[in-house]
Amino acid sequence: MSRYTLGVLVARQHGADPGGIVPARSRASGLVRPRDLRLLTSRADRELRTRARPIGELLVPAAPAAHSSST
Asked: Do the beta carbons of residue 11 and residue 17 sit within 8 Å?
């Protein structure tokens, strides 16, 4: 999942407009960031005897709001 997608999902989860989140390349910002931000959870899974759920399962994209038309 990209940083952009994560930002959009978090914004929607909190009821914020994700329209202000602009996709961009890290290189263009001049910041030095790791490309791979995976969180390895195998140890936590073993210790807690459960499976850590991926963020994509927790922050589900909201369905578009239905617009009612009055005629």
From this structure: yes
pLDDT value at position 20? 92
Residue 6 dihedral angles phi and psi, to the nearest 5°: -60, -45
Q: How far apart are CA 13 and CA 44, in angstroms?
A: 25
What span, in angstroms and rounded, lies between the C-alpha atoms of 4 and 32? 17
d(CA 24, CA 16): 20
- List pLDDT tens digits, range 52-71: 888 878 776 655 544 444 44
Nearest-angstrom CA–CA distance, 51 and 70: 48
